[in-house]
Design brief:
Strand 11 and strand 12 form a beta hairpin. It contains 1 helix and 14 strands; from the N terminus they run αββββββββββββββ. It is mainly β. The longest helix has 18 residues. The protein has a 5-stranded mixed beta sheet with strand order 4-12-11-6-8, with no helix packed on it.
C-alpha cells in the first residue's frame, strides 16, 4: 500500500475516533461518518532522478540494452508510487515505445524501449514528471556505426597520368554500415 495512502487511512481512523465517538458515563454513541480521499498526484517535495539506462552505447538504429528508468521519491527519500512520467526523444531522431508510465511501488517508471537514431552520434531522451522537483531529467546514449555493409568510391577515380608517374590523387574508398555511417578499421 502506498505510504501516503496508509498515512491518510491512519489519520482518518484517528479523526473518526475523535469525531465519531464521544465518551459518556453511560455508553458510547456514534455520530456522522468521515470521508477520506487519497491522491497519487505528486507533492512539491517529491523529486525525480535517473535510476538506470543512462550513458549507454548501441549500434545506430538499434534499441539500447537497458530501458531508461527514473525514481520518484518524497522529501525523506521514500519511493512514491502512482506518479505519471512522460518520456520523449529530445535529439538523435530515435524512437520510443511506452512513452508514458506510472511509478510502481518502488517509485520506478521505465520507458518501454529506446531505439537510437540511424546516424552515429549523440542521442538524448527526457523524462518529465509534472510538478516533481528535478524534472525533466535527460538520458544520453551514443549511436555507433554498425558492421561494414557498403563500399563506394571516395576519391581518385577517372584520373590520367604519364606512364611511370604518380597520379595526382590516391584512390580511396568509403566503407559504411547499412545506415551510411562510416566504419573505421575495415581492411580493404
Amino acid at each position: 500500500m502506498n505510504r501516503r495512502l496508509a498515512t491518510l487511512v491512519i489519520l482518518a481512523l484517528v479523526a473518526a475516533a475523535a469525531v465519531n465517538w464521544s465518551w459518556s458515563t453511560a455508553a458510547f454513541t456514534t455520530a456522522s461518518s468521515v470521508s477520506v480521499q487519497a491522491s497519487t498526484s505528486p507533492l512539491s517535495d517529491d523529486s525525480l532522478n535517473i535510476s538506470g539506462g543512462n550513458g549507454q552505447s548501441a549500434t545506430a538504429g538499434i534499441a539500447v540494452s537497458t530501458a531508461p528508468a527514473v525514481l520518484v521519491t518524497d522529501a525523506k527519500g521514500n519511493p512514491v508510487s502512482g506518479v505519471a512520467v512522460t518520456f520523449a526523444v529530445a535529439s538523435g531522431s530515435g524512437s520510443i515505445t511506452g512513452p508514458t508510465a506510472a511509478t510502481n511501488s518502488s517509485g520506478i517508471a521505465t520507458v518501454g524501449s529506446w531505439t537510437l537514431g540511424t546516424t552515429a552520434g549523440s542521442n538524448t531522451l527526457t523524462a518529465t514528471g509534472t510538478g516533481v522537483t528535478g524534472s525533466p531529467v535527460t538520458f544520453t546514449a551514443t549511436g555507433v556505426a554498425g558492421i561494414a555493409a557498403k563500399m563506394s568510391l571516395y576519391a581518385g577515380n577517372g584520373q590520367s597520368a604519364t606512364v611511370n608517374t604518380a597520379i595526382t590523387t590516391a584512390p580511396a574508398v568509403l566503407v559504411t554500415d547499412a545506415n551510411n555511417n562510416p566504419v573505421a578499421g575495415t581492411n580493404v
